[in-house]
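Worked example 3. Consider a protein that binds 1,6-di-O-phosphono-beta-D-fructofuranose.
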Amino acid sequence: MTSVLQTARYQYQPKLPPVFGNGLNIRVKPGTEAAQSTTVCVADRDALGALFKHTYGKPPVTFEPGEYNAALAKPLVAGVILSGGQAPGGHNVIAGLFDGLKKGNAASRLIGFRGGPSGLIEDTYVEITGALMDEYRNTGGFDMIGSGRTKIETDKQFAASLETATKRGLDAVVIIGGDDSNTNAALLAEYFAEKGSAVQVIGCPKTIDGDLKNEYIEASFGFDTACKTYSELIGNIGRDANSAKKYWHFIKLMGRSASHIALECALQTHPNICLISEEVAAKQMTLDAVVDQIAESVVKRAENGENFGIALIPEGLVEFIPEMKTLIAELNDLMAAHEDEFSGLHSFGGQRAFLEKYLSRESTAVFESIPEEIAKQLLFDRDPHGNVQVSRIETEKLIVEMLEKRLAKMKAEGLYKGKFSALGHFFGYEGRCAFPSNFDADYCYSLGYTAFMLIASGLSDYISSVRNISGPASAWTAGGVPLTMMMNMEQRHGKQRPVIRKALVELDGAPFKEFVSHRAEWAVKTRFVYPGSIQYYGPPEVCDQPTITLKWEHPPVA
Ligand code: FBP
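Given these inputs, the predicted complex is written out as structure tokens:
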């Protein structure tokens, strides 16, 4: 049985960039001819040029209206993979790809690999038929084919991926994922080229975290819906706090590293405090300094008789506080270097004693100073890409615990006379599978359709790029960007590896500056905004607004 909204959403026809209204009368600019301009990656050019011998340095491409393009009409077989954390709109990327393939040639086929990249390695798949596709149009979630975080990294996994692609007769594989998954897409494209295979690899920018973006990728999909969902909830809590006037709410928001989600939610809801991890790192703020900043707001509000408030805490904060960052980096390297010994230790006491043999003196002191619960959470398994699972670290509790101590001390010194009662929340999973907003429904469908165009144009190692997206879809453009262009070398699992560079919050960027221009007032006064829930039907100013971040970063081009 489906909900009334789901049934209604099946009928929604997502919008496409106008160029695709030309059917198959489309040309690729500047094209793939050897004479066209080349590109370089964001850093570590020599190392990356050597690692990606076959795929490095291609030009970005744009689709434009043109003559009838027979290449777009050839029958194709494509495979698609959903990779990493869920993000609203994934099903619409598949729908755009599916519809593009069928529009090109009704005999074209789409195979969905199950459970993320492991589906390609293990050849577990489902044929995507029109009937199956129609059950998932404009819905949230990745449940159509599932997702996973397996990293294709060993020779055996690369060879198995090629074997599956060959066995299934694929012309191309589309990987829908974040920075790590698109890094994998680039490695796979290079591997296929190295082995003389013609199988193309195309990426699509997914992640609620919003940190896969650059000059050509204005936003990753899912960010819009997730932020709107969290902002609805923050607004509701703000209204409750302002009604009851007795609680401070500490809300940790997903976003593994970058604070884009916290910043966007702050711009949408005007909380009293919003920490931005990138600023904490730039100012080299200690944990104590972070707590000071919040205490100042609590005290000033208490002086105004307002013993309540909202504080937003980005999920990745602990990795940006210098002393914690060093500790985590040392733990990452140690746990990778002594994997076998470490996995044999089953008590926290044993693990701590083992690690403290190798940790630097400073990191040992930090490790011992944090509450045991948090210290244990720092030792949870890393994900397959070597990342600490920050969603499992209860940063909001760490901060509340320290703040309570600070306020008690200030009270004893006569510096604080208010009442402090704190409640913690973590918003993450609440937003990852919401029905995609109209923006995400349209954007994702366009990304999928563009992926088809890139495949049909014979391109590989490109990520689908739809631009000018802060304006109406009637002004959107479409093209592709070489994946290797977005890469640099970083330390992962104790080694230097090629990865797509994460886009962190820029402290000289317009969204952060906008926040800074208001935050002193918001810290003391109650200026909450209540955005309400995402609207799917109604006037465009209510239903089709992009995020505030996007509007500041990429004002629409007429
Ligand atoms: P992706 O980068 O794969 O899109 O995932 C983003 C995210 O939602 C982060 O915000 C969060 O830290 C992480 O996934 C949690 O993942 P999991 O549910 O697998 O622990």
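Take a moment to read the result before moving on. The CA atoms of residues 213 and 227 lie 16 Å apart. The longest helix spans residues 223-244.
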